[in-house]
Amino acid sequence: MGVEAKGISKKFLKKYKIDECINQFASACGLYSTLLDINGKMLVEPSGPKTYLGEFYVTVTNPKYRKAYSDIVSCMADTGESLYSEIDDGNPDTRIAVAPIFVGGNFAAAWVLYAHTKSQNHKLFKAFDKFSTMAKSLSVMIEGLYKGSVTITEDKKVRAELEFAKECSDLTDEIMDTVGDEGMESLSIFYEKVGKLLNVDYIVYYVVDEERPGHMILNEYWAKEGKGEKAESTFRWENDHYSLEIAKQIKKNGLVIDKNNMTNKMRVEVFQGNAKAVMVFPVYLKGQYHGRLIFIENTKERVWSSAEQGFARQVTEIISRYITVKLHVNEVEEGWQIVKCVAESIPDMVVVRSLNSGKVLYANDAFKKKLGTGIVGKSISRLLPIQEPAPEEEGAASERKVVRYQRYIDQLGDIYNIAESYHRWGHHERVSIIVLALAR
User: Fold this and answer.
1) Cα–Cα distance between 155 and 316 in angstroms, integer?
2) Stated pTM of the model
3) Which of 256, 355, 378, 385 is buried deepest, with most CB atoms within 10 A?
């Protein structure tokens, strides 16, 4: 496989001092010299005796020689050999020699030697064979150096990708550990870490506005330069102003836009001119589209790598799960608040205890007044032994099972009808709700 000629640049030639080799050879011969790419652009600045250096510079940059140079390039590309020729510049003593530089089998550049006087012409004729050999040696040298530089560049790229993947993995683990922490209230503390790792300007979380179809509500965001009106005015896209096709794509697989596919229409109509690269991924809660997490770059043009896209998508999925769990916990808490309100409004005694520790988590006023002592946080196993469901009924169904029985309770001095049901309390602790009614 050939090496791409685009790697032969001024910077590359200077880095490995190829330009010095060319100039030193020309200087030793007392001739003018330059290196041109296949389009005639200078890769090595013209050098040679000062006397006619200006004339040489004008010759190699004169547009009228563009066609002649193109013919020379085509000829050398076919033959692979150097050539020696006169040139029609108004000076009968002018001669030019051109040698091809091949890299990976591809014609990459042309080395030009120029003679302006009879004396220089004689020197050029004598040096022509060495010049041709030197050009072939430079071809081998440049190809070797270029392959080496490509290997080093690729190695650096691979190392950078591996380092990025490790940082993504470590941060993902950290987020997952925190999401599993029952005391976790917000993921906003991680937006900054994710934003810095992806090197973006903003991370924005919008939720669907249930009351206004086609609108979004800004829920949370992180800004590289800090929160404030300036940041919000940059990305506040409350209207779901995507085309139906783009909106559908976002809800299904997400939307990744960078300099490879960003159009002016999209930049103006979709992102209001405030974004150069964007990744948008959907947030789903219980199978329903709930909102979107947006990663925004508006400082510079960029192309999102597959690793960056994968990490952003993974972060979105984690946040989706976290919000789902948080909403579930909130729903459970709201449900228990309703249970407590009902328990306080009925004459029967109600108590909630942990099936793991046997300790009371809640007791209504009727129970506390009847018992005549503080009971929350204490065990009532002697008062009411735990009635576990039958083993064959354990599982989701057993958590809803109601066990009914009668019992004489010494501390209460009477016989009671008891109904005990099994549930999950708060952060998934197994509990039983016990209702005690005086037997009639």
Assistant:
1) 31
2) 0.47
3) 256
